[in-house]
Structures are given as structure tokens and as C-alpha cells.
Write a structure and sequence with these properties.
Structural class: alpha+beta
Order of helices and strands: EHHHEEHEE
Oligomer: single chain
Strand order of the largest sheet: 1-2-3-5-4
Distance between the termini: 17 Å
Strand content: 25-35%
Length: 135
């Protein structure tokens, strides 16, 4: 199953949020597993609109449902090239006031997802996120 969403502001992303929130009821996935997908998407979308407020975003969600499901979320935006995987992760061993600002969203993305790839294709950022969802 694959579903597509397209929007130009964070307020227009409600349909995507509802779709993700309904996955536990429709497919019997654990709510905490699906919540991690929602956290990832919140971070990614917030960052896109913070740094590229005129972005047009297309999100494709592909769900493979079997004994353990895999959700693949592909987020495309037409903003300036930005590879979150090339960024240095914050040093979480330091106290918050000693760390340089930023990077926590990228840390969440990389730690909650089971796989993340980035490419810049046809003047678009393409971030592909994979997460295994357990029943």
C-alpha cells in the first residue's frame, strides 16, 4: 500500500499526521512504534519549513504489511540541498549549556529510524526513512 501527501505549510500536513496516527488501529502495530515514525516526521517537516519556508513537500508513505511490517517514508522538498546524514551529531555527554546549538532533530532521526538515505535528485532533497513496525 502506498499513499501520497503534498503540502506547502506545516498546517497542511494534518492528513499525513492522521494517516500515521491511524496505523495501529488499522494494522495492529504497536502504538509506540508508530509514535516514533510521527516523531521523525515532525522533526523532518519542522526543519524543512524552518530553513526553507517556501518549500513544497511531497511525502510518499509505503507500507509493507506481513508478520512484521516495514514503513518507508520518502520526503521530497524543493529547498536548498541539505544532507542531514552528513551533519555531525551532538555530543550528548556534555551538559546542554556546553553543547553547540542544533543537531538534536538529526540525532532523533538517526536513532529512531531503522534506515535513512539522502539524495539530491532533480533539484529536490529526497530523504528516505525506513522503520520496522512490530505487531
Amino acid at each position: 500500500m502506498e499513499k501520497h501527501f503534498s503540502f506547502s505549510s506545516l498546517s497542511e500536513s494534518a492528513a499525513l499526521t492522521r494517516f500515521i496516527d491511524e496505523l495501529p488501529e488499522q494494522y495492529r502495530f504497536r502504538k509506540e512504534e508508530v509514535a516514533s515514525v510521527q516523531i521523525i516526521l515532525d522533526e523532518v517537516l519542522n526543519n524543512i519549513f524552518t530553513y526553507n519556508p517556501l518549500s513544497r513537500i511531497v511525502v510518499a508513505v509505503r507500507l509493507q504489511y506481513d508478520r512484521s511490517g516495514e514503513i518507508v517514508v520518502c520526503v521530497e522538498d524543493n529547498g536548498i540541498p541539505f544532507n542531514p546524514l552528513a551533519q555531525e551529531l551532538p555530543d550528548l555527554t556534555l551538559p546542554a549549556d556546553e553543547r553547540r546549538p542544533g543537531g538534536l532533530g538529526i540525532y532523533l532521526l538517526r536513532s529512531l529510524a531503522d534506515g535513512v538515505t539522502y539524495s539530491f535528485i532533480d533539484r529536490k532533497n529526497v530523504l528516505t526513512i525506513k522503520k520496522m513496525l512490530k505487531l
